[in-house]
Amino acid sequence: MSEAEARIEVGLGGRYGMELTSVKGLISITLSVEEHERQRLAGLSTSDLLQLSKSELSQVVQPDLVREVMVGYDGETVQMILSI
What we know:
Layout: H1 3-13, E1 18-23, E2 26-32, H2 35-42, H3 46-58, E3 68-73, E4 77-83
Antiparallel strand pairs: 1-2, 2-4, 3-4
């Protein structure tokens, strides 16, 4: 497990139901969203959701380690793909 993966696991895993997968420098994170957060996230634009996700990630992983982030929200989970 890389340092970035370990930091994500510890930093986000304790606050969210989380699934983490890593393949060749890409990290896939799926976070379960609690009921009270769903409505707030549903009202966000794609760019606002991306900014919020980057803000959450920067609390556990140094921003300079992350090259690119893609984010999606399906109404129940937030999916992030990171390039490290």
